[in-house]
């Protein structure tokens, strides 16, 4: 399965709402998604956003774009992708 398919499936199966307005729910969804994407080896925001657009059926809401921009580099710099290798991640999320 290709990374774009994994991202689409992950968003759907874990019911991540990336269309919600700004706030803690959107922040949480973006942090989760950024970490998982990094785990897959997706290391740039633009690639991730293309996959998210596919998941949403085209385009991304402005609030998502703003939020993922805030959190992606932070997640990258703090190795949020590493957490996904642990059993705890597999218990909490479908991937």
Would you summarize the structure shown here?
The chain has helices at 3-13, 24-40, 45-56, 62-77, 87-92. The chain has 95 residues and is mainly alpha-helical.
Q: How would you summarize the topology of this molecule?
A:
Blueprint: H1 3-13, H2 24-40, H3 45-56, H4 62-77, H5 87-92
What can you see in these coordinates?
- This protein is mostly helical.
- The chain has one domain (3-92).
- Helices cover 65% and strands 0% of the residues.
- The protein has five helices and no strands.
Strand content range: under 5%
- Shape descriptor reads globular
Mean pLDDT: 94
Secondary-structure element order, N to C: HHHHH
Low-confidence sequence ranges:
none
User: What is the count of structural domains?
Assistant: 1
Q: Please summarize the sheet with the most strands.
A: none
Q: What is the structural class?
A: mainly alpha
Which terms summarize this structure?
mainly alpha; 95 residues; globular
């Amino acid at each position: 399965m290709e990374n774009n398919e994994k991202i689409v499936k992950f968003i759907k199966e874990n019911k991540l709402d990336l269309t919600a307005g700004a706030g803690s729910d959107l922040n949480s969804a973006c942090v989760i998604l950024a970490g998982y994407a990094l785990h897959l080896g997706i290391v740039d925001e633009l690639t991730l956003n293309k996959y998210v657009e596919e998941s949403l059926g085209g385009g991304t809401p402005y609030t998502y774009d703003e939020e993922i921009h805030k959190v992606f580099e932070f997640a990258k710099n703090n190795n949020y992708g590493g957490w996904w290798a642990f059993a705890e991640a597999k218990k909490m999320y479908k991937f």
